[in-house]
Amino acid sequence: MNNTTGGSTEEPEPEPEPELPSDGSYSEEKGVNTPNLGEGMTPIKWDENANDWVETDGSDPDWYDYSAKKWANAKTADGSMWVWIPRFAYSIPSGGYHTSNATEISIEFMKGTSNESSSGRKSFNYASGAGNWNIHPAFNYGEIVSGIWVAKFEASNSNGKIMVQPGVQSWKSITVDSIYTNCLNYNKTLNSHMMKNDEWGAVAYLSRSKYGKNDEVTINDSSPCYTGGGIGNTYVNNGAQSTTGNVWGVYDMSGGAYEYVAAYVNNGNSNLTNWGKSLVNGEAKTKNVYMPASTDNGTNNYNQNAGVYGDAVYETSTSGSEYTSWYGVDSYFPYTGYPFFVRGGYYNNSSNAGIFYFHWDIGDSISHYSFRPVLVAI
């Protein structure tokens, strides 16, 4: 029998859920900039049932959840693994700023490449100081970017090519010059480059917030410097060695091998060009350059650069020649013939290694020094 009431009894179809983008734009739903998937990148997520990473797609709502300390992971075509660090602003409270006392760092994710945070904050100090709010400087690669892709593990050597995988030995015995060149050549489409000091700081700060482990990152004490703390998939059980305290974060930032970063004191010492010529002659966007004091030593250079922020150096330590970084780890600022920055410490540094560790070195090929690359999808 026909319905003659003039109305339909059928329920309207529900509106489909909007798909999450994966282009670096800000997601109100997720509260962060969506991971910017560059050419050849595939999103992956941890499957508890499979106890392994599985491929997904950029609109998968389960791909990441920073409020639950699940940072977005992806792989490049060669199988290398990367972790998304969304652009953010931060504030270090007076109890932790320029002290040895590790404190929680306040983080507000930024909306895209704008100067507005997720809380609506639009005013920033752009200066080092206790309680100051700063947009972290790591998200500038010649232009403002919505985030960076950081190597999940220290780099390894696959027939002379960079790989980023767990459970293999870190690539060691390589000069700063070769590190810099290899990183630039790894994936030019994705703007690959040697990790900078401020990029290291961005990962460290996010780790010490409510979005990360928010505690000391456990040392990778694997004596042959196996990435993730051991052979094969040992890293799965070594979540405490990650920046999130679980498999979703970045590994090997405490212990493992020492890591050279693309940062140096521009003091004119011959070791700058002896061991790091390509870095010294490289584009400004690929490095952090520090000015020497009139008397070039660690303490003076440290104080000379007191205004630098975001790099987990002055803001998270009290001196440039002691064990005064957060958690009491090394805080030795580069000087004279040791102009290059080294981060993280070594597997046998015991309590002196850590994510807030910084030290100096010559830049030459050393059997226990490694590195990690970073990608920027623009």
Describe the structure using short key phrases.
378 residues, alpha+beta, seven-stranded antiparallel sheet, five-stranded mixed sheet, 4 helices
Give a summary of the structure in a few sentences:
With 378 residues, this protein is an alpha+beta fold. The chain contains 4 helices and 21 strands. The radius of gyration is 22 Å and the shape is globular.
Describe the structure.
- The chain is an alpha+beta fold.
- It folds into two domains: 26-76, no CATH class; 151-375, no CATH class.
- It contains four helices and 21 strands.
- The strands form six sheets. It has a seven-stranded antiparallel sheet. Strands 14, 15, 18, 19 and 20 form a five-stranded mixed sheet that branches. A three-stranded antiparallel sheet has the order 8-7-9, with no helix packed on it.
- Residues 1-8 have low confidence and may be disordered.
The largest sheet, given as strand count, sense and whether it forms a barrel, is: 7 strands, antiparallel
Helix content: 10-25%
Query: Helices and strands: which structural class?
Result: alpha+beta
Helix-strand sequence? EEEEEEEEEEEEHEHEHEHEEEEEE
Low-confidence regions: 1-8
- Average pLDDT number: 95
- For the record, give the distance between the C-alpha atoms at the N and C termini, rounded to a whole number: 62 Å
Strand content: 15-25%
Care to count the β-strands? 21
Continuous helix count: 4
Global geometry: globular
- Number of domains as seen in the coordinates: 2
Q: How is the largest sheet built, in terms of strand order?
A: 4-3-5-6-10-21-13
> What is the CA-based Rg, rounded?
22 Å
